[in-house]
TrEMBL record, chain A:
MF (Gene Ontology): iron ion binding; iron-sulfur cluster binding
Function: May be involved in the formation or repair of [Fe-S] clusters present in iron-sulfur proteins.
Protein name: Fe-S cluster biogenesis protein NfuA, 4Fe-4S-binding domain
InterPro entries: FSCA_dom_sf, NIF_FeS_clus_asmbl_NifU_C
Organism: Propionibacterium cyclohexanicum
UniProt domain NIF system FeS cluster assembly NifU C-terminal: residue ranges: 125-177
BP terms from Gene Ontology: iron-sulfur cluster assembly
Gene3D superfamilies the UniProt entry points to: Fe-S cluster assembly (FSCA) (3.30.300.130)
Recorded superkingdom: Bacteria
Pfam families cross-referenced by the UniProt entry: NifU
Automatic annotation (TrEMBL), chain B:
PANTHER family found in the cross-reference section: FE(2+) TRANSPORTER FEOB, FERROUS IRON TRANSPORT PROTEIN B
Domain FeoB-type G: 19-186
InterPro entries listed in its UniProt record: Fe2_transport_prot_B_C, FeoB_GTPase, G_FEOB_dom, Gate_dom, GTP-bd, P-loop_NTPase
GO molecular function annotations of the record: ferrous iron transmembrane transporter activity; GTP binding
Transmembrane segments: 228-251, 271-290, 297-319, 339-356, 368-392, 404-427, 466-487, 596-616, 628-651
Cellular component terms (Gene Ontology): plasma membrane
Name of this chain's protein: Ferrous iron transport protein B
One Pfam family this sequence matches: FeoB_N
Cross-referenced Gene3D superfamilies: P-loop containing nucleotide triphosphate hydrolases
Native source organism of the sequence: Propionibacterium cyclohexanicum
UniProt KW keywords: Membrane, Transmembrane, Transmembrane helix
Amino acid sequence: MSAPHSAVISVHPERTANPDTLRWVVCHIPMPFAGPLQTAPGLGELIGTVVSRARVNADSIDITLAPGHDWRADGAAVRHGLVVALARTDEWVGGADASRLGPDDVLRLCACELIDGPVGAIATVHGGSIELVDVSDGVVTVRMHGACRGCPAAAITMHQRLESQLRRKVPSLREVVSTAA
Amino acid sequence: MTAQPIASGSGGAALAERQPRIALIGSPNGGKTSIFNGLTGLHAKTGNYPGVTVSRTYGMCQIKGANYNIEDLPGCYSLTPISPDEQVVADLLGGNVRGIESPDGLLVVADSTALRRGLLLLAEVLQKQIPTAVVLTMADELRRRGGSIDQQALSRALGIPVVTVVANRGIGIGELRHLIADWRNWSVPPIDPPQDPNELAGWVDSVLDSAGYQVPVPDERTLRIDKVLLHPVYGSIIFFAVMFVFFQALFTWAAPLQDAITNLLAMLGDWVSSVVTNSILSGLIVNGVLGGVGTVLTFIPQIVLMFLLLALLDSVGYMSRAAFLMDKVMSKAGLEGRAFVAVLSSFACAIPGVMATRTIPSSKDRIATMLGVPLGTCSARLPVYLLLVGMLVPSDATLGPVSVQGIVMFLLYLLGGVSAMMAAWVVKKITDRSGNLMPFYMEMPPYRLPRPKSVLLAMWEPTKAYLRKAGTIILAASVIIWALTAIPGRSPQELEAAGVDPTDSVAVTSYTMENSIAGHIGKAIEPVFEPLGFDWRVNIALVGSLVAREVSVSTLGQLAAASDPEDNSQVAQSISQWTYTEGPHQGEKVFTAPTIVALMLFFAFALQCMSTLAVMRRETNTWKWPAIAFGYMFVLAWVAGFIGHTIMSLFS
């Protein structure tokens, strides 16, 4: 399937609350930094014209289209550019408040994403919430609030869900610990 | 082949138009049909897509008081067609099927044990801009084999709804029904999946990864069994052994039922004769319809048994392996995968076989394969073979523990397969250039216990088709042939002048028949078939078989019933008493072993099928190729029959 000279770049878009912004989830490629992306190979001509804002997360890039553009029409071009960029992450130029990412930083960002996103959403449905307490040396500590607390079933499933999803994104995760309130 | 426009047209169909149409699309064996049955109950309707013999299944599903038209699209791996089934699906989604609009919503049924392939199909489907949702099947199997998938994460990564259904246990059907009712609100992916193969592979990887997809470890048991069954030598031996037992069973198990049907029809005939006093009318019913269509119906037990065994072998997971194995053997001989698919299809019927050649890119290869395909032992040859084998070999003849009838049947099928492959291979050698073989892509499902419901359905569909054919084409042909043999009736004066006693009904019938239009036709072509031992009555059956091969059986049944109305035994016994009515062999028996063998070989090779010729004409857009196919197969059939007759004569 794949051309011999170029490795397959694993990336897919997911919707966000803002229809102009898509979260491009990246697998198996470490991000060089977190924060605004000023320019990158393949995306140079797009940023500032079609793309109004590109923000790097631990394992994804949020790309917001400039007014007058829409994903149906411009999505393919952004994807082409992104695939080129992801093959050369060392040439990316970050904005002023971009920060280098250590292993625990990646873990923290990914845990936040999950807690603010899909895993936290399930907790909310069950009348509770999850709080990220600490990330150090590959161990993520969380605290359960609300209806979740005291319900062993919810706690266990929530814990497992967070741990398994997090491990998928960050294989170096050692464990997720939930502390008592 | 008559096409039936189903969801279009006037009258009642207009009502169906207003109901949302939801189509199921997915790979064969992916659990699509179970989902369909789960949604519609067993009230499926079947038909054909206009102009093709790919069968169409659809049914009604009532959710919260509203009706939804659910269509079970033919199984496909991709929308880039490699088989006629895939062609139909691609055309349908593109709105390119006459009289059928593209569906309102699509449910992509994805086997979770082979999800990567399911997503590749989904990526193509999503380009069609039709509201789409995913139904994950085989989740129990995935779990059993140590795999996993996060349905919610998958839905988020795809941007469309995903439900998991384990249809045979009813799990998830309720959720699926809710989803269908909500089809207008299905989320649409923010952008279409990429079309560039490299980007597509990255998209699939990324989606699977985000959904925590873990590939099931290959089933240990399946692997071990496959090591033997897919082995080029042992596997081939087992394949032929399975087929051998298959044909043994066909004769041994079905015989008692066949006798019962014969007796039933005989009783019916007696009853009609006693009730209907008008001799022409009772002749039409007893000789024309019961003698003709009835004879074809006596083979129902074998037909049912054959499709039951096939359905069992298929649902256990054996048939795809048999096909894979045969392809491995054939590709060594240089026959390409797609040609193999065509030849394989022709064992059901040559028409899908001819249609399957559409997917072969080079027109030379296409025509080469098309010329070989009609040699495959199609199911229309089955009743003819059953009748002839029954006459050639006594049912109690055994070779050790095995029935000789079964052996002969096995050899006839083998002959069909080998000659179709050979013909395709020879023509391919003549026209060959690149030798670029297209691999044959077939899924190897894990071995499973067959599910009774799906086996019964798989058995019932072809049986129904056989019954329908008996009730339509064969019935019509029977009536016409009866008319041609029984009309005009002769006046007593004419009979006396010819030396026939008008009170002897048997003599009258045979005189009438011999001097009828059909009799004249049969006699006119007698010189052609005289070296093969066929008399004018066999020739009538041959002419009749041009409509459909089964008509030869019904015609022989009719002629037997007419010539000996007192005899209620099986047609085979009755016609084996026939003697030549004139010529050098007058008084000798017609159906000697050499004649029967000649007739079998003739049917094995001759293209006695108008529908196949018509489809060839449509596919090639000229009468040239059907004419060539008919011509070469006729010569082949005649020569094979003559050789068979000559060799058998030496022995007897």
